[in-house]
Amino acid sequence: MARFFGKLKGNRTKSVTKLGDAQSGLTALVNGWKMGVEVRLYVLNDMDTVDIYLNTGSEGSARGLIYRGTETDIIEKVRRMQV
């Protein structure tokens, strides 16, 4: 059974979807020419965890982790955003 779900849409009429489970996780890489982002969802210590990286896009290979959080961290951040 899938634990993670992803959806991507570009210039085609249909979007594509991907599933990930606890073992495989799910990774999305979206790049422009000079910048991009990679998002990884995976299970760590039985909790859904996300890593978000910024990168130098299609023209480069540098990347840096800008955020790592668990499902508990995300829920708390979203609650604080709702005023």
Q: In percent terms, what proportion of residues is strand?
A: over 45%
| Apparent shape | globular
The biggest sheet amounts to: 4 strands, antiparallel
Counting helices, strands and paired strands, the structural category is mainly beta
Q: Number of helical runs?
A: 1
Number of E strands: 6
Quickly count the domains: 1
Q: If strands are numbered along the chain, what order do they take across the biggest sheet? A: 3-4-5-6
Q: What share of residues is helical?
A: 10-25%
Mean pLDDT rating: 92
The radius of gyration computed from the alpha-carbon positions, rounded to a whole number of angstroms, is 15 Å
First-residue to last-residue Cα separation: 35 Å
What order do the SSEs take from the amino end to the carboxyl end, as H and E?
Answer: EEEEEEH
Low-confidence stretches: none
